[in-house]
Automatic annotation (TrEMBL):
InterPro entries: Metallo-depent_PP-like, PhoD-like_MPP, PhoD-like_sf, PhoD_N, Phospholipid_Metab_Enz, TAT_signal
Leader sequence segment: none
Residues in PhoD-like phosphatase metallophosphatase domain copies: 172-513
Annotated protein name in UniProt: Alkaline phosphatase
Top-rank taxon: Bacteria
Start and end residues of each stretch annotated as Disordered: 343-365
Length: 544
């Protein structure tokens, strides 16, 4: 029996047997039962269809997005939400809506390329996912949606180059960790103005924690957020409404409209530091799978993801591969859904037999084999792994009493070594790991043996700081001296908010760490805190 079948069976058993109180809300229970099928419920085809001309308020309050660019294809996303902070989005209950879409070579849409219609189903909370094929490879496009008399903002996207294209350059951005209640998304406004081909979101797109009427650290004086946000997300409606709150942010909308995103989750899209089917508090797995199903369903609905990523019950295959010509292969990982539970109760702990058990896995066996087999077939100049938690070793202090984070790859060292052995055995070129999670910027050399600073450097790790999580931060965090002394492979450590851009070329890759001084007040300018390069065929980061 596969892991997927096991989880699905456990989920359905939980849905049948758990009492109402353990479902947390009756709404959550009803929504959970609906997850037994992957498509809109039977009878949807006969459901009432709302005449779009009856929509009296702007339905495109959450903007537009695109994602997962392929050669000649891109995924377009929007959601109809005239009243985004209400259950049902301000649309008549149970109705579907026909949405028109179009894509063109120019922003004025005088050079139209493709157009069509899509249904906004109530079962998917009136979100729209359109997979547009038949486009030219490796070029920008503009797109928009229409519903009745309403027209969405214009988005700009880009297809990937053809598989055989000798692409000479690619510029990407990496972002992570955007706690609404801890600050403004100012970095996204700056990212929207950058010239990048694709943005990788490395997790914690939203946080499950309560958001006060004043928006937490944002300290709103010009608006009052509804009470529905001032609680932890648990049910499907909780997660859907929380995405609506985040996606009404103007800076986030600007970034989505400017660039295609390739997304992967970490923990907070569901619950802090969960591992597989084990919740943070080690409570019963059956109850947690109900919550996970709700979180995964809302994640797919609200992200520019393709049909293969649509969840079934509490499971969702998020790991996938994108290629940009012969220049870059991106193997996007999911290090949360399949991992073993954190050793020693999680947190920073002294490593030992439990954490070093070879049976422990960060990715699960199926995903691990998929990654290594993908490397075996790779012909890319750069093999990039966008993923969630710190891959390189990070000791807490420069003495034998050091501790390691059990939630990072340090808590799964055998799993990390299998990945590195696979990279060496397949002979891939220029391994680069993109990471989020830790709310700081790091530039690290990946060592064959982290216990020996003189061992071979086998790749590089670029860690994107948070968009807002952790409040304003500092240039030199309080643990700066201890971490840099304890980890000689750490080339850079910076504690402000922002993002990182990476320019991949045939001869070298350059990372620019872009940061803002403040997120508790809006409008901070962006600066480049540091820049590093690594040369093709000569792994290791050097400041420039």
């Amino acid at each position: 029996m596969t892991d997927h079948q096991t989880h699905a069976d456990a989920f359905r058993a939980a849905a049948r047997n758990l009492g109402r109180r353990r479902f947390l809300t009756t709404t959550g229970a009803a929504a959970a039962l609906a997850f037994a099928v992957n498509l809109p419920a039977a009878g949807t085809a006969a459901a009432a269809e709302l005449d779009p001309r009856r929509i009296r308020e702007d339905p495109f309050t959450l903007g537009v997005a695109s994602g997962d660019p392929l050669p000649g294809s891109v995924l377009l996303w929007t959601k109809l939400a005239p009243r985004p902070y209400e259950t049902g989005n301000g649309l008549p209950a149970g109705t579907r809506v026909t949405v028109r879409w179009e894509i063109a070579r120019d922003e004025r849409f005088t050079k139209g390329v493709r157009r069509g219609t899509a249904l906004a189903h109530p079962e998917f909370d009136h979100t729209v996912h359109v997979e547009v094929d038949g486009l030219a490879s490796g070029r920008p496009y503009f797109y928009r949606f229409r519903a009745g008399s309403w027209t969405s903002p214009v988005g700009r996207t880009r297809t990937a180059p053809s598989a055989s294209a000798r692409t000479t350059s690619l510029r990407l951005a990496a972002v992570s960790c955007q706690a609404y209640h801890e600050g403004y998304f100012t970095a996204y406004r700056h990212l929207a103005a950058e010239d990048v081909d694709v943005v990788f979101h490395l997790g914690d797109y939203l946080y499950e924690y309560a958001v006060t009427a004043a928006g937490g650290a944002r300290g709103y004086t010009d608006r009052t957020l509804p009470d529905v946000f001032n609680r932890e997300t648990v049910s499907l409606e909780d997660y859907r409404l929380r995405y609506a709150l985040y996606k009404t942010d103007a800076d986030l909308k600007a970034a989505h409209a400017a660039h295609p995103f390739a997304v992967t989750w970490d923990d907070h899209e569901t619950e802090n530091n969960y591992a597989g089917d084990t919740p943070e508090d080690n409570g019963p797995s059956d109850a947690f799978l109900i919550r996970r199903a709700a979180a995964y369903r809302a994640y797919w609905e609200n992200q520019p993801l393709r049909r293969p990523q649509r969840p079934t019950g509490p499971d969702m295959k998020l790991y996938r591969r994108l290629r940009f010509g012969r220049l870059a292969q991106f193997d996007i990982l999911d290090t949360r859904q399949y991992r073993s539970d954190q050793a020693y109760g999680d947190g920073w702990q002294t490593p030992g037999p439990e954490s070093e058990n070879p049976a422990r896995s960060m990715t699960g066996g199926t995903q691990e084999r998929w990654l290594i087999e993908g490397w075996r077939n790779s012909r890319a100049r750069w093999n990039v792994v966008p993923q969630q938690v710190l891959f390189s070793e990070r000791r807490s202090v420069p003495n034998p009493a050091f501790k390691l984070s059990m939630d990072s790859w340090d808590g799964y060292p055998a799993s990390r070594q299998r990945i590195l052995a696979g990279a060496l055995a397949t002979g891939i070129d220029n391994l680069m790991v993109l990471t989020g999670d830790v709310h700081v910027s790091y530039a690290l050399d990946i060592k064959a043996d982290f216990r020996d600073p003189a061992s071979r450097t086998v790749g590089t790790e670029i860690v994107a700081t948070s968009i807002s999580s952790g409040l304003n931060g500092a240039d030199r965090p309080s643990n700066y001296d201890s971490l840099t002394a304890a980890n000689p492979h750490m080339r850079f450590f910076h504690g402000r908010r922002g993002y990182v851009t990476v320019a991949l070329g045939e001869r070298e890759a350059r990372a620019d760490f872009r940061t803002v001084a403040s997120v508790t007040t809006p409008g901070a300018p962006v600066t480049t805190a540091a820049s590093f390069v690594t040369q093709a065929g000569r792994p290791g980061l050097h400041a420039v």
